[in-house]
Amino acid sequence: MPLALWALTLSAFAIGTTEFVIVGLVPTIANDLGVSLPSAGLLVSLYAVGVAIGAPVLTALTGKWNRKIVLISLMGLFVLGNLLAWQAPSYETLILARILTGLAHGVFFSIGSMIATSLVSKDKEASAIAIMFTGLTVALVTGVPLGTWIGQHFGWRATFLVVSVLGLIALVGSAILVPKNLKQSIPATFKEQLQVIVKPRLLLVYLMTILGYGGTFTAFTYLAPILEQETGFAPSAIGLIMLVYGASVAVGNIWGGKLADKRGPISALSIIFSALSIILLVLTFTMDNKVAAVLTILVWGAFAFGNVPGLQLYIVKQAQKHTPNAVDVASGLNIAAFNIGIALGSIIGGSVVESMTLRDTAWIGAVISALALIATRYSGLLDKREIQRA
């Protein structure tokens, strides 16, 4: 794989750390700022809203820019957003910082996916996307547990300072390693961009993405309080369990890319969404027991992010067929869909925590994942009909 791909992975690591470290810090931030668990969980949702806005809108606005300049500008915005979070005097300022950082995240993964696929041969596209997204999963393995530990021992603000330094390193890495002459598609016209949000086949993929991530994040947003209140772990153990989860995610992400390359996106996604539905349902009953809960979380991690390569590859393939001049925008909207799913999942999880119990977030997440499976099978059926007609 080309060196530029590893530069993207480095940036993804920094961005992944700031996105997911908040999950391990929800109880800490809630206590420090004097807000409820659902209010602290809202920091996950609002970051995702920033991504959802930034991905399609800023991707379209920067369509004519040199790709390397866009990447470096995004990492600069990312660093500024985390510095603001470090110095945030209030909950409201922290919300602003999270939204600002989310804007950078959205465009990065939109154009990053397109750059990754342009750097390799056709048969390696899903694997290239998987390697780039490995930055996210490695962040889950190392960045999130370490950030959680730092937040618990030195205050949550220190975590955002460390993430700012990571972002600065990633910025320098991109400046050095990413080539200037990156392949750049012709910017889509407004009409072509509009088609991306009205084509039924593309909308169906976005729905698959929203449901697939909504299911996981209904429970994952509240994983730290679940482990503390339902399973009985000490707060100091949360970072270690996040390490176990992240290690499993790293393996699952690469496996998901290889599975999508080998079997095709629909088959791979069907397997992954089926497994997610079952695992989240099982978690409802295993979170009482420490050993069973950790084992369930280990398996959950293997499937939770394994759908990323398949979903990104599938939207690119569908966009190439239905909106060939707006593939970048379609890819950006799918990144938005990932984060709409994260936002909706964390909001649904917050509602469940307020009106039901922490335990109920798991089985409700399972139901949402099952809906993602239904949408995936339906899309696969439409693909077969298109082939038959052709």
Key attributes of the depicted protein:
mainly alpha, globular, 390 residues, 0% strand
In N-to-C order, the SSE pattern is HHHHHHHHHHHHHHH
The low-confidence parts are none
Total strands = 0
Helix percent band: over 70%
- Which structural class best describes the helix and strand composition? mainly alpha
Q: What would the average pLDDT be, to the nearest integer?
A: 84
Amino-to-carboxy terminus distance = 35 Å
Largest sheet: none
Write down the overall geometry.
Answer: globular
Strand portion, in percent?
under 5%
Walk me through this protein's architecture.
The protein is mostly helical and 390 residues long. Helix content is 85%, strand content 0%. Helix 11 runs antiparallel to helix 12 and helix 14 packs antiparallel against helix 15. The longest helix has 31 residues. The chain starts with a helix and ends with a helix. 59% of the residues are buried. The mean pLDDT is 84.
